[in-house]
Amino acid sequence: MSDPLQRCAAVDDDAVACAAAAEPDAPVNLCSRHLLQAYDWVAKDVGVTDVLPSPCLACGSRLGVRYPSGWLCAICEWKVGMIPDEPPPRVRLDVVYYIRFGDRVKIGTTANPRSRLSHIVHDELLAFERGNRELEQRRHHQFSAHRMLRTEWFDLHGEIRTHVDTLRAGQDDPWSQYALWVSELLALRG
Predict the structure, then answer these.
(1) From start to end of the chain, where are the E strands?
(2) What residue spans define the domains of the chain?
(3) Which residues, 6+ apart, have CB-to-CB distance to 136 below 8 Å?
(4) Is 122 exposed, middle or buried (0-12, 13-18, 19+ CB in 10 A)?
(5) Which residues are CB-contacts of 57 (< 8 A; sequence separation ≥ 6)?
(6) Could you state, in chain order, the average pLDDT of each consecutive group of 10 residues for the chain (190 residues)?
(7) C-alpha span between 177 and 161 (Å, rounded)
(8) Is 83 within 8 Å of 69 (Cβ atoms)?
């Protein structure tokens, strides 16, 4: 009967075979140590996606790719640490924002979300949606059954939660989505 444990296929510089067991689900017969070495070797060329040490100066994204030579923004490919000759051009991007405070949700709009949200007491930024006052007013009408008097605040109802979940599909951080939109606008400007 054959041995069900596969041995690592790696051989060291002295032509001695590795005695460790290969990882059972690995695509090649390598042990954990040699799989990590292979990963590090590949990562030096293709990079490792991770959170940037600080927001990108060009687009504000927090997502980057780490190479041995340094970091690049994963959105606009700006080399982290480089100082722009001039400040990045301002782009106007209107968004509808959804913030939660307790069991209430505020649906508002702004072209400068960082500044606007810094002036509103809230527990959590739930989502962004590209759009202006017209879209904001449509959302207010859409969720009017849950509106608190004539304010921009709504009860956190299942209908609103479902809408926010749809907006956030595939995104853990609304700021990442916002940074992508800004980056796309900058790229369109050339």
Answers:
(1) 48-51, 63-67, 70-73, 95-101, 104-110, 124-130, 153-155
(2) 46-88, 95-189
(3) 96, 107, 108, 109
(4) middle
(5) 78, 80, 82, 83, 84, 88
(6) 72 88 91 88 77 77 81 82 70 93 96 92 96 96 93 94 93 86 74
(7) 18
(8) no
